[in-house]
Amino acid sequence: MGAGGDDEVDRRPFPKSLCHRCAAPPQYIHTERSTFIRCPIFKKYPPQPVVACDAFQESPSPPDGGRRQA
Q: Which of 2, 27, 53, 64 is paired with 43 by a 20 to 30 Å CA distance?
């Protein structure tokens, strides 16, 4: 694995899920063997990875701290 901010994203469960970039920040529920992502809008745990969501709005601050790829 490489160094840098990308490692932080890669350690999240289902790194490609829209939930990580949503303006309504999800709650991460950790158990011994699993991590669940709870949606604060729908008040439930959607099947992951979420690739489409009617309520999704891009977070104003990107998960990479605002860095852009060149």
A: 64
Q: How many CB atoms lie within 10 A of CB 22?
A: 20
Give the amino acid at 22: C
Instruction: Answer yes or no: pTM beyond 0.85.
Output: no
Give the helix/strand (H/E) hosting 47: none
Amino acid 67 reads R
CB-neighbour burial class of residue 54 (10 A; exposed 0-12, middle 13-18, buried 19+): exposed
pLDDT tens digits along 21-47: 999 989 999 889 988 999 999 999 999
Distance, in Å, from the CA atom of 13 to the CA atom of 33, rounded to the nearest integer, reads 12
